[in-house]
Amino acid sequence: MPAPQRPAWMRFEGITKRFGTFQALEGIDLSVSQGEFVCLLGPSGCGKTTLLRILAGLEQQDSGQLWMGGRDISRVPPAGRDYGIVFQSYALFPNLSVTGNVGYGLRTSPAQRARRVSELLDLVGLAGCADKYPAQLSGGQQQRVALARALATSPSLLLLDEPLSALDAQVRDHLRRELRALQRKLGVTTVMVTHDQEEALTTADTIAVMNAGRIEQVGTPEEIYSLPRTRFVADFVGHANWLPVRRRADGAIDIAGHAIDAPAAACTLKPGDSGTLFCRPEDVVLQRLPAPGLLARVERVDFMGGIRRVVLTLCDLPSLPLIAHVMANDPVCTLLHPGSRWPIGLRSERVRCFVDVEGAA
Ligand SMILES: Nc1ncnc2c1ncn2[C@@H]1O[C@H](COP(=O)(O)OP(=O)(O)OP(=O)(O)O)[C@@H](O)[C@H]1O
């Protein structure tokens, strides 16, 4: 589903940043609308934290502009930018109680501060912990305190720098859902940095996938997963199968001498072009009945709870692995023995082709 077009409330325009001779950010353009939850997603070192720090005013860009609510904030110091921020390390004051930490930035009367702190602790589910100290809290609780502190002044913008990555999987999953629900409830525009694709897919309205200082694609989680614009995006988000293909003169797509159906919209190849076909593991179908076309051999079956991950090789192209996901309750699962051969179908409306570019991965 394409992202609904909403007016931009915040804009990065041509942001660049260099550290010595290293180009950390190259011409970043990104628009964010009010109330949107945007994830900056990418591998370590791609520049996402640098971009967040520039937005926070903790780092100065070399060129480019930053707009927020119609105001050019490119040179505004951090204190004038109206945001709350949560870092990966909880960054709480160890000598202050939860109440002291949450109320730290509130410049109001003691009575108002106490009321606001109690409201915030209710909001993040820590009502019973007001008098505790950070060392007496779990990692997840400390991050809730950090979140309450970031929200204390009701900022227009919430910045999150890998806020869940220090937590164990179960707490992370739980807090991720709570964070998303809270963000929706408050309607606070949020920018979160993460290298975790699952986190981005499950929390964001919009994902900006970054690679080597550039944004490769901006889209909804569905667009990023199903319609990746580059090979990098396809590989970084979820598992991607890649098969060499050629477009025949009659328009059909040829894989290892077999024609497969691929709707024109999914195919960027001109007749005669070679390219690479991309498909997700859930779009590889093992057919029970004999069928002409692609045949694959089962190499291995991995148990993954609700699904089986089937590692296949095409009989006519044995050097390339092909991964298929089969639901664990599919009767086919009981027949998936290593060495068995299966006719393979690809969900033609879901496959995409990329033209081979010399030097591309
Ligand atoms: N102050 C600095 N001085 C020199 N190089 C820096 C500095 N800050 C960041 N870099 C470099 O800029 C690049 C981008 O860093 P950044 O922290 O933005 O990446 P990231 O995508 O957030 O990665 P990670 O998830 O590992 O934090 C990295 O190669 C990093 O080494």
From TrEMBL:
This is 2-aminoethylphosphonate ABC transporter ATP-binding protein. NCBIfam families: PhnT2. The keyword Nucleotide-binding applies. Residues 10-237 form the ABC transporter domain. Keywords: ATP-binding, Cell inner membrane, Cell membrane, Membrane, Nucleotide-binding, Translocase, Transport. InterPro entries: AAA+_ATPase, ABC_SmlMolc_Importer, ABC_transporter-like_ATP-bd, ABC_transporter-like_CS, AminoethylPonate_ABC_PhnT2, Mo/tungstate-bd_C_term_dom, P-loop_NTPase. Pfam families: ABC_tran (PF00005). It comes from the Bacteria. SMART domains: AAA. The keyword Cell membrane applies. It comes from Ideonella lacteola. One of its GO terms (molecular function) is ATP binding.
